[in-house]
Amino acid sequence: MTDTDSLEKAPTDGESGGLKKSKKKQKRENAWRPEGPRDPFAMLDSLPEKEQQEIQKALHLFSLGTSLPKTLQQAKNHTYRFWDTQPVTKLGDHITTHGPVEEVDASIRNEPCLLPQGFSWDTVDLSSPFVLGELCHLLNENYMEEDDNTIRFNFSPEYLLWALQPPNWLLQWNLGVRVDANKKLVGFIAAVPADVHIYETKKGLVQVKFLCVHKKLRLKRMTPVLIRELTRRVNQQGIYQAVYAAGTVLPTPISSCSQWHRPLNPRKLMEVNYPGLKQNMNLQRALKFNRLPEVTKIKGLRPMTKEDTPRILSILEKNLSNFHLSPLLSLQEVEHWFLPKENVNDTYVLEADNGTLTDMVSFYAVSSRVLNHPVHTSLRAAYLLYAVCNVTKMADLMQDTLVLAKAKGFDVFCALDVMDNMSFLEKLKFTISDKSVHYYLYNWKCPLMSPDKVSLVFPN
């Protein structure tokens, strides 16, 4: 029986009123007395959802002053204590050559990097539904959010398996950090294998994804340790280069592009105050401005099937050879990344009368939680993966893609101004946002490239 249980029992005949009063007083005092050491994570989780969000919003806004720069101008005055020790080019360097920043060091340490006391490394086994749920929770609460903390990513287990388990993925490259005391997952970083063309060089490397540290641990400088340990594990497989993208400026972007978005459900976006909407539009004007046809116009446009995989690879290879940074895809990778999966990704192909495939378009789905809104709790965004046109005009194919995405219940369609995307963005009433995406290479130097020469797009 707990102390609370004994206090709630009625007094026996021999108990005095004074004793009853004393026990009430004791109960009030015990309400403020911790029963042993309290876990700060448990204390936060015990609060009502709205109070948790207010605390996290305050923590997020407080941390903005020490965050990494988001523009090249800001980066000039920033000191990169960690990145200055890494094999990456320095900001402002004029690179005209191609090759590794540092030659391969054959001596790779066998012991994992040291973590702060009280934390341990964990290889995150995504085949366990429980562990996959833990990763979803960590990313959905801590990965990224808008500066006002009103919209937060809500990755599904199916999405994470798609993003983290392409062909030849390795378990040891799903790297986590846990608290020793309660085994809570508080840090994560992942790498997946990829072959890419960097100008004329074919390179086997890894794409680094989902770097995430719990909000309350960011002052412990755990991010550099995560990167070092993942680097060690990748080096053990004989791979010494990586590609990654970020919304912040690090040393040194090989290319920087902007994110554009096209409202599909303007009413909902305005009601949740979606960032980047045109402020000079009222609802009626926004609905009229963003109106789309009810049906698609291109004859022969249909969802991809597994049998389309070889022909999609063929048209992708021909198109991607036009760019300076592009993926080299296998049949298995094309099937993995493009074959439609419910609530994860969609691909449509254009089939001519003679049965040949000429054009294709693919996008993936990312859901977000809408916080503290009386009506809306979620938001669905479609992100353009690839679009290749040989017969139709790009603007016509993308307009049909918008119609299809809207019919599937997406609220907004997002695209980067990479590849040939500028040919349709403004024409189809996409609006440029204030978000930039910077591309980086680890231990590889090459001349900078404009966004229209980048064709490497990977879910992150």
TrEMBL record:
Tree of life domain: Eukaryota
List the molecular function annotations (GO) for this entry.
Answer: glycylpeptide N-tetradecanoyltransferase activity
Which UniProt keywords are listed?
Answer: Acyltransferase, Cytoplasm, Membrane, Phosphoprotein, Transferase
Question: Compositional bias (Basic and acidic residues) at which positions?
Answer: 1-12, 28-38
Give residue ranges for domain Glycylpeptide N-tetradecanoyltransferase N-terminal.
Answer: 105-257
SUPFAM superfamilies to which the protein is assigned, alphabetical: Acyl-CoA N-acyltransferases (Nat)
Describe its membrane topology: Peripheral membrane protein
What start-end ranges are recorded for coiled-coil regions in this protein?
none
**Which coarse location class describes where this protein primarily resides?**
cytoplasm
Q: Where in the cell is it found?
A: Cytoplasm, Cytosol; Membrane
Q: Which reaction does it catalyse?
A: N-terminal glycyl-[protein] + tetradecanoyl-CoA = N-tetradecanoylglycyl-[protein] + CoA + H(+)
The EC number of this protein is 2.3.1.97
Cytoplasm: is it a keyword of this entry?
Answer: yes
- Class of this enzyme: transferase
Q: Domain Glycylpeptide N-tetradecanoyltransferase C-terminal: where?
A: 271-448
Provide the residue span(s) of the region labelled Disordered.
Answer: 1-41
| Keyword presence, Ribosomal protein | no
Q: Which Pfam families match?
A: NMT (PF01233), NMT_C (PF02799)
Gene3D superfamilies found in the cross-reference section: 3.40.630.170
A cellular-component GO term for this protein: membrane
Q: What does this protein do?
A: Adds a myristoyl group to the N-terminal glycine residue of certain cellular proteins.
| Family stated for the protein in its record | Belongs to the NMT family.
Protein name per the record = Glycylpeptide N-tetradecanoyltransferase
Organism of derivation: Xiphophorus maculatus (Southern platyfish)
Gene name of this polypeptide: NMT1
